[in-house]
Design brief:
The complex is a heterodimer. Chain A contains 12 helices and no strands. Chain B is of the alpha/beta class. In chain B, 31% of the residues lie in helices and 23% in strands. The chains are: A mainly alpha, B alpha/beta. The structure holds adenosine-5'-triphosphate (ATP), iron/sulfur cluster and magnesium ion (MG). Chain A: GO terms for molecular function: dipeptide transmembrane transporter activity.
Chain lengths: 315, 330
């Protein structure tokens, strides 16, 4: 088990390295010169050259890569090429709690909706309830998250004025303020996610409910609750967990869009601004962190497998 | 009063809007502590009959006619809640599929103890102690260790033994034991059959033993019902039925299994032809396409069960009672 985790960790780090390297070169292959754009109104060719030299952008690509890489290994991701040259690590350190808070809350909301919805529609298959749940799931899936985000702002922030429309309050400043600011964006992201999970739970449960071992469990005269939570769900959740791992990626990309609507300066917003400005170090740093979240959520899913399914030996 | 009395049971399957009958007019009964063997080839409706008694017919299947009485009470149309009062603690079942009938993600211990904790009100410790006793009784070594294992760590034979332990766990008065037809080799199958019969006899538990092997049940069952194509074609006490098997299918079954009293060098003779397709309507006696003694009447009208030579048979031209099996084989 320990050896397995170690091997997976090494693999994860390799994936992150590959992604970072790819992004490094791709960014620089995209036409457009950020320094020329930045200094277009204020400086001539000399100022531009001087700025490039200062930022190290005049050296060969390989040297730049080598420098970035060796710095990154020491935890130095460089600094924004703009303004007061804020260190990338600082920008990211501020963004991560926002994106993680948002993602985790959306995740929780999605599960809290999906689990009962999936169970109800599976146990009342082809009834009015099942159809209603299916319809809602379809609706949830087909609404773009930015559109849902705007709709939520209009209803709950602008009209009802129950919740704030924009901004972010750190958890350290109180649970309730934190939650109030995140709940609308989390719903906007979590809805589509919950629809996917609910459908998945439904079909997985339907398969499990008609299995031989469920018939055995029923032959013992167990209560419906014991049947569902003691026998059906533990099996039905096995394939669902994979989907959760994949859907977590979906959730992060949802965060990129929805953070912009709600003016939350999380990783998504940092990334978008960085790309628009060709702020190389910021983009590289943000991508590195996002890929880290991806590979580690995948790793966690794989480890969970071993916990929930005794037939799987991790080695 | 019989422990179980099934009368004129019919089981239907829904085919689109229509409805097709898979089991016709089946009647059988079990007295307390008695063993009834239901014998027949694949697809004859044995498992369906047992599942109907448990109220566990799968979706699309239903009881189309007849009554099922347990200890005198008509349970045919009991709802899930009422059924759950009986399942486990009154009637238990051992299923036919050892490889898939245990939950792959729960321990053996959990699967044996949960029923009796609910039904007998035992605490965890008492239930574990009883589970260990039960596993010992069904012949599983190192039971305390096994309780912590998962089904995939056990062989097919052991899983079937675990199923028997589960069936016994809540002290039922009746067990329906469906014999595995795949996944186990013949000797293990025979061992498990005799184990089931012996344990039920020792505990005074009524037993419905479902098997293909008419030869072997003679040793364990007081009563036998032979099923063919969804109907019971011959039934009675084991003694009467073995003394004078009269249905041609029963005859065929007997000569197709090795028996202690047949000479060793005699070849086994499987019944020619294939079992009928349950979805296809066959007029008259369903056995007539395979029956050497078939006459015109056989293809027209379904023979009724009638008393002959101390037991019941449904055949237009029954084998004369004085014609013994060895004569026929010779
Ligand atoms: N859900 C179903 N839908 C349609 N037909 C079914 C269904 N379940 C069973 N049958 C049919 O009913 C017939 C009787 O089935 P049953 O399982 O009782 O046979 P069996 O006597 O137990 O056979 P075996 O010895 O192979 O277990 C079979 O031919 C089967 O094809
Ligand atoms: S009724 Fe006719 S076909 Fe059926 S077993 Fe008897 S003799 Fe054979
Ligand atoms: Mg069967």
């Amino acid at each position: 088990m320990a050896a397995y985790v170690l091997r997976r960790l090494i693999g994860s780090v390799l994936v992150m390295w590959a992604v970072a390297t790819l992004v490094f070169f791709m960014l620089r292959l995209v036409p457009g010169d950020p320094i020329a754009a930045m200094l277009a109104d204020v400086g001539g060719p000399e100022e531009i050259a001087a700025m490039k030299a200062k930022l190290g952008l005049d050296r060969s690509l390989l040297v730049q890569y080598g420098l970035w890489f060796s710095n990154a290994l020491q935890g130095d991701l460089g600094a924004s090429i703009y303004g007061s040259r804020v260190p990338v690590t600082q920008i990211i350190a501020e963004a991560i709690p926002r994106t993680l808070s948002l993602s985790l809350l959306s995740f929780v909301i999605a599960i809290v909706i999906a689990l009962p919805a999936g169970i109800i529609s599976a146990t009342r298959r082809n009834t009015l309830t099942d159809n209603a749940v299916s319809f809602l799931a379809f609706l949830g899936l087909s609404m773009p998250d930015f559109w849902l985000a705007i709709l939520l702002i209009i209803i709950f922030a602008a009209n009802l004025q129950w919740l704030p429309a924009v901004g972010y309050i750190p958890l350290a400043e109180g649970f309730w303020p934190w939650l109030r600011h995140l709940i609308l964006p989390a719903i906007a992201i979590g809805t589509a996610f919950s629809a996917i999970i609910a459908r998945m739970i439904r079909s997985s449960l339907l398969e499990v409910l008609s299995s031989d071992y469920m018939r055995t469990a029923r032959s013992k005269g167990l209560t419906p609750r014991m049947l569902m939570f003691g026998h059906a769900l533990p099996n039905a959740m096995i394939p669902v967990i994979t989907v959760m791992g994949i859907a977590f990626a979906l959730l992060i990309s949802g965060a990129v869009v929805v953070e912009n609507v709600f003016a939350i300066k999380g990783l998504g917003r940092v990334l978008i601004e960085g790309i628009l400005n060709r702020d190389y170090p910021v983009v590289q740093g943000a991508i590195l962190v996002v890929s880290a979240i991806f590979v580690f959520s995948n790793l966690i899913v794989d480890l969970l497998y071993g916990v929930i399914d005794p037939r799987i030996r991790l080695h | 009063m019989s422990l179980l009395a099934v009368e004129n049971l019919a089981i239907d399957v829904a085919v689109g809007e229509a409805c097709h009958r898979l089991v016709h007019d089946a009647s059988f009964s079990v007295e307390p502590g008695e063993t009834l063997a239901i014998v027949g080839e694949s697809g004859s409706g044995k498992s369906l009959s047992a599942l109907a008694v448990m109220g566990l017919l799968s979706e699309g299947l239903s009881v189309g006619a007849g009554t099922i009485r347990y200890k005198g009470q008509d349970i045919t149309h009991f709802d899930e809640r009422a059924r759950n009062q009986l399942r486990g603690s009154e009637i238990a079942m051992v299923f036919q599929e050892p490889m898939t009938s245990l939950n792959p993600v729960r321990t053996i211990g959990h699967q044996i103890t949960e029923g009796m904790r609910l039904k007998l009100g035992l605490n965890r410790k008492q239930a574990t102690a009883r589970a260990i006793e039960l596993l010992e009784e069904v012949g599983i070594s190192d039971p305390a260790q096994r309780l912590r294992q998962y089904p995939h760590q056990l062989s097919g034979g052991m899983r079937q033994r675990v199923m028997i332990a589960i069936a016994l766990s809540s002290k039922p008065s009746l067990i329906l034991a469906d014999e595995p037809t795949t996944a186990l080799d013949v000797t293990i199958q025979a061992q498990i059959l005799s184990l089931t019969a012996r344990i039920c006899r020792d505990h005074g538990v009524g037993l419905v033993l479902i098997t293909h092997n008419l030869g072997i049940v003679a040793r364990y069952a007081q009563k036998v019902a032979v099923m063919y194509g969804g109907r019971i074609v011959e039934a009675g006490t084991a003694a009467a039925l073995y003394a004078a098997p009269m249905h041609h299918y029963t005859r065929g079954l007997l000569s197709s299994v090795p028996r202690l009293d047949t000479p060793r060098d005699l070849p086994l003779r499987p019944i020619a032809g294939a079992p009928p397709d349950p979805m296809q309507h066959v007029p008259g006696c369903r056995f007539h396409p395979r029956c050497a003694a078939a006459t015109a009447a056989c293809a027209q009208e379904v023979p009724k069960m009638e008393q002959r030579a101390g037991h019941e048979v449904a055949c237009w031209n029954p084998v004369p009672a004085d014609q013994t099996i060895s004569e026929e084989l010779a």
